[in-house]
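The records we work with from here on pair a chain with its fold. Each token is a code from a learned vocabulary of local backbone shapes. A record is reproduced here so that you can trace the correspondence yourselves:

_____
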Amino acid sequence: MLVVGGLSAAAVLLVVVALVLTLTVFRPSEDPLAGSEHTPQSEAPEREPAGGEYVPDGEEESSEPDPEVTHIEAPTAPCEFLPQESTSPQSPGTRSSGDMSFTIPEGWSTDIDWGGTLPHATDVASAEKHIEQNYYSVAQIGQVDWSGADGGYPGAEDAAAAYVQCHLTRADGVQAYGENPEVTSYVSEAVEVDGQDGWMVRGVVEVAEDGQIATYTAVEIVAVVVETPSGPAVFKVATSADDPAMNADLESMVDSLSVA
């Protein structure tokens, strides 16, 4: 079970319910998808800056960035997608990699091999929920492998952040979320899974106006890296942030994380 700051994930999620946490990705394919208003004379007209926000006379427009928005850039190390070979045995109702596993929500399937879409990972197992056309919500679990990157494994905190960065800034991520994705409800914090230390990064990103996703407007992404007895493992999921049922599925998977 995942624990955040000494509390169970379920308890924390009641406090941070505003963090409505996919992975909506392309199905693996060689050809992916592809006027005026009256102002009384007795009143001075309001002064409106170029940005469209009213600023009272005598006050200056604030140039400070919105503290609730986190701008995501590409990671400093390239997102390396490794050859896949599944070695961990799988049981009905769960997906496992090494010592770590999660429970598959009802209505999700395991029919598609998504292993090649999770960077810096081997022995990847996954589950998916079809959303529309070639878009799916996908949950993945795998063994962290930074062997091909300069400097090697950066630690759980930086690795968790990199998994989110890679998701948002790869080619199909740019198509879905735009070239400069802005994340709200961003959280980066230490966690514990069955006594094993780890780190979780999560946030909500709006779908780009020129994207091809039609049935929802935002996606929640979660990446958890845990230092398991057999080495670091990663769990990553992204789902529609607009759908309460998908939100519940996401939270149930995060809460179900376990280390044998």
